[in-house]
Design goal:
With 426 residues, the chain is an alpha/beta fold. 33% of the residues lie in helices and 20% in strands. It contains twelve helices and 20 strands. The chain has helices at residues 17-25, 77-89, 110-122, 134-143, 155-177, 184-198, 205-214, 247-253, 287-295, 313-323, 362-367, 393-406, and strands at 5-9, 30-33, 42-46, 49-53, 66-69, 74-75, 99-102, 106-107, 202-203, 219-222, 262-268, 271-273, 307-309, 311-312, 327-331, 341-350, 353-355, 369-376, 409-414, 422-424. A ten-stranded mixed β-sheet has the order 9-7-5-2-10-1-11-15-19-20, with helices on both faces. Strands 14, 16, 17 and 18 form a four-stranded mixed β-sheet that branches. Helix 3 crosses helix 4 and helix 5 crosses helix 6 (184-198). The two termini are 19 Å apart. Bound molecules: inosinic acid (IMP). Residues 12-14, 39-41, 127-130, 132, 134-135, 224-225, 229, 238, 240-241, 274-275 line the site of inosinic acid.
């Protein structure tokens, strides 16, 4: 048993992991991100000040913690430098002492962002991506034509890889989308400029992480997005292009499975999703607007309004299994404070049959009808509650049911956006 822990999302991202990671970061030495890129968005509120994170682990708010952007990530240097500048302007110290970037993480280029947009435009099944070039960058990684962060520091290698990519992209994009406007010189100049600014952060993070592990330091693995957006386990093809669930940790950092002591799964007390794709418990009435307003459900990254719905316990139970969740954290309970009744999806009806598990067939999942269990609302403000026993009995019944159904004990309940607004459950 060790104290290293993973924090993963159990829904479609935006579960409020940022705040939980921020709280848990206080007790660890190293915070590592292992997948995704600036499609992610964590907001952390500290002393009334809001900090937005897209690439950098939110552990950076804690002085003395080492934050690592692992090799499983895709890095847009422009977005990274912007984020560093913004955080520094808010008084956050960022230097190679507390931020390291994997030399073997992949780099996002303008042709990735462009392709993200082009593909969305011509697909009949739009994914509703964040448009940040995430999928196309992972495509190049697996096609073995990707350019890695370390390559930017080796101009000869970088320029020859870039030349191959520009030749290929201009040729293909011209045929398919009527676009061949990428200038090799311009991109080379731009990215060599970024290299100069990020070079001191770049290193062999695999060796670094093994070293801190051997030294007995505690590591927190910060998941971005959520299990239902995982490219293997989510609502494919309406997913992101990486493994957001725990499996991504090992390929995304170079540390082995035995590094992990505990998995903390985070789920919102209701459900939200941004972008396209099936969402059986989605509100079809004014409730959607009510929860969106009360919960501030607008994307940190794109500002898009999030789709809102009831808690889907079938999906969360599945996500608990996939991740081997040891402890469940339920966030934003307070958003449900004023409701007369609250529903939880406990199964699906499909063509006269009842399904107890999440169906991989996207056509089936798009047409299931949720089976709900209804709970009475508590109609009391819970945001000032700090002990589980002090929650209204209706809220306790709701949480206890969820915990039992999904098969994980609740260790924390979040009742507001501030760091202090949390209930630790013994
Ligand atoms: P991509 O990751 O930009 O390719 O987008 C694929 C899908 O994942 C879209 O539905 C996005 O809205 C969704 N997505 C990506 N990152 C996040 C996130 O951090 N939170 C919520 N949804 C996300």
């Amino acid at each position: 048993m060790n104290n290293n822990l993973a924090v993963v999302g159990l829904q479609w991202g935006d579960e409020g992991k940022g705040k939980i990671i921020d709280i848990l970061s206080a007790g660890v030495d190293v915070v590592v991100r292992y997948q995704g890129g600036n499609n992610a968005g964590h907001t952390v509120v500290k002393d009334g000040k809001r900090y937005a994170f897209h690439l950098i682990p939110s552990g950076i708010l804690h002085p003395g913690k080492l934050c690592v952007m692992g090799n499983g990530m895709v890095v847009d240097p422009l977005a990274l430098l912007h984020e560093i500048d913004e955080l520094r302007a808010q008084g956050v110290e960022i230097s190679p002492r507390n931020l390291r970037i994997a030399e073997n993480a992949h780099v996002i280029f303008p042709y990735h962002r462009k392709l993200d947009g082009f593909r969305e435009k011509i697909r009949s099944n739009r994914i509703g991506t964040t448009g940040r070039g995430i999928g196309p960058c992972y495509m190049d990684k697996y096609a073995r034509s990707g350019i890695r962060v370390g390559d930017l520091l080796n101009p000869r290698l970088f320029l020859s890889k870039l030349a191959d990519n520009i030749r290929e992209k201009n040729g293909i994009y011209r045929q398919v989308f009527g676009y061949d406007g990428f200038s090799e010189e311009e991109i080379a100049r731009e990215y060599l400029g970024y290299a100069e600014r990020i070079k001191d952060f770049v290193c062999d993070t695999v060796s670094l992480l093994h070293q801190v592990w051997e030294e007995g330091k505690t590591i927190l693995f910060e998941g971005a997005q959520g299990t239902m957006l995982d490219v293997d386990f989510g609502t494919y093809p309406f997913v992101t292009s990486s493994n957001a669930s725990v499996g991504g940790i090992f390929s995304g950092t170079g540390l082995p499975p035995k590094v992990l002591g505990k998995v903390i799964g985070v789920a919102k007390a209701y459900a939200t999703r941004v972008g396209e794709g099936p969402f059986p418990t989605e509100f079809k009435d004014a409730m959607g607007d009510l929860i969106r307003e009360k919960g501030g459900e607008f994307g940190t990254t794109t500002g898009r309004p999030r789709r809102c719905g009831w808690f889907d316990a079938v999906l969360v139970r599945y996500a608990v299994q996939v991740n081997g969740v040891d402890e469940l954290v339920v966030t934003k309970l307070d958003v449900l404070d004023n409701l007369e009744e609250i529903k939880v999806c406990v199964g699906y009806r499909y063509e006269g049959r009842e399904l107890e598990t999440f169906p991989f067939d996207i056509d089936v999942f798009s047409s299931v009808v949720p089976i709900y269990k209804t709970f009475p609302g508590w109609k009391v403000d819970t945001s000032s509650v700090r002990r589980f026993e002090e929650l209204p009995s209706e809220a306790k019944a709701y949480l206890n049911f969820i915990s039992e159904f999904v098969g994980a004990r609740i260790s924390m309940v979040s009742v507001g956006s501030d760091r202090e607004e949390v209930i630790f459950v013994d």
